Each structure stands twice: as structure tokens, then as C-alpha cells.
Amino acid sequence: MSTAQARAHVLEIVSASRTSFQTGMRILPQPRREAMYAIYAFCREVDDIADEPAPNEQKRRQLAEWRTAIEALYIGQPNTPITIALVEPVAKYGLKRNDFLAVIEGMEMDAFEAICGPTLAELDCYCDRVASAVGRLSVKAFGATEPAADDVAHALGRALQLTNILRDLNEDAERGRLYLPAELLDAHGVDTRDPAAVLAHPNLSSVCEALAQVARGHYRDAANALARCERRPMRPAIVMMEAYRRVLDALQRRGWERHTEQVSIGKLTKLWIIFRYGLI
Prior knowledge:
This protein has 280 residues and is mostly helical.
């Protein structure tokens, strides 16, 4: 497969996902945008493996195949459309093999046994693998060179993932998953780890609000780290931070007891964020 064909395949994955990520990445120059699309396509593919209703052995085999594909990429023998599309970004932007492998490890945490009430340490590890590792790849693709860029990835990845967890309580529960941490559940008198029972518990709001404050702390840390980076390369990170912070605002305004009601930010708000933080 040619590089052009591989890039077209990656773009199909990004477009089919209908993600707002694609809109945010359009502010990047074409080579960096194509790098981000390839990173996103990799993450989308391994995430789909973790979420699909398939036997664990099949998931284990598919994730192992991705490990092999990443190893092949780094010895100059890419053998999938996505890894072919990643050849140039890896060489040009210094994307690290261990960050790709960390994403796979995060998906393995989801794939083989439903996470229910992890410890704070386990949740932090999960967030690092599925979100901050993606951030470390992304800031390199953006063109950031300061050490503080990795600090942004560390904090912002955790902030975004915790926001996702708070937004997707019902969807995760339907899959038998509960990412609210054990220490916060215990602190607020929730003694079950059954996802449906936790969502019906009268103290759910207190647990969610406590986790929201943890997320707020990560947003503050990300903003402080961004202040130590050159602004222009990090505009996509700023756009994502501002968009997701507004999602968290909307969740808190809605109220945690109304967790069955979906929350999103409007298209005009997204466009304003891109204009305000991505273009000027």
C-alpha cells in the first residue's frame, strides 16, 4: 500500500467517527494534521477492540497484533495502513514507541475485565495510558519542543479523561464498567461497586462532584504548563482544553443526579472556541 492510500484510509476512519476532533485538527498545517489523523486512527482502532462484544481471547489476539504492528513500524517494516501512515510522523516528529504501546496497555485494562471502582492509583494509571500517552504523541505532532509540553500532556490527558468518565457514566455502566474511584466511593458512603447500584445511590452526586474537583485541578495544572509553552504549536491543546472544560461546566450545571441526560456543547460554541483559541 502506498503512503497516499494509507493516508486516505486514515482519513476514512477519522471521518467515519464523526468526531469533533477533526474540526479542531484542521487548524494545523497539513503534515501535522495528517500526523494527528494517523494517531487518532490508531487510537480509534485499538479502542474499538476494547469495546467490541467479542471473546477475551479474540481481543487479546487483536491487541497483540497491534503490539507487533507497532514494533514492526519502529524497525522500518510497517505492515498495516495505519502504521504506513505513521512512518513519516514517527521519523519527522519523534513519536515514541512506548507511548503507542502505553495506549495498547490502557485498552488491555478495559478489554479483559470490566473496571469497577478502581483505586485512585489504578485510575491514574489508566488515564495516563489511554489519554496522557496520546497527549505525549500529540504535542510532538503539534510541534511543541519545550519540556513543559509533556507536562501539558500529563495534566490535560487526565483532565479530559476524567471529564469523559463523568459524562459517560450511563454508557459505561451499560458495559459493566465503573470508573469512579474506590476511595471517593468509600469516602461518601457508597459501599457497592455494581455500576447500576452506584448510579442509583443517593450519594452519587457527592462522588461525582469530588471527581470533578480532581479534574479541575488537572485543568489548572494544564493551563499553568501551557503558559510555559510557545502558544502557536499548542493551539490545538488549548482548543481541546477550553472545549472539554465547558463540557465539565455543563455537567455540573445539569447536576449529577440527572446523569441520564446527555450533555454537549453547541456547534456555535465549538466554532467560537476554535476561532478564539485556535486562530488568534
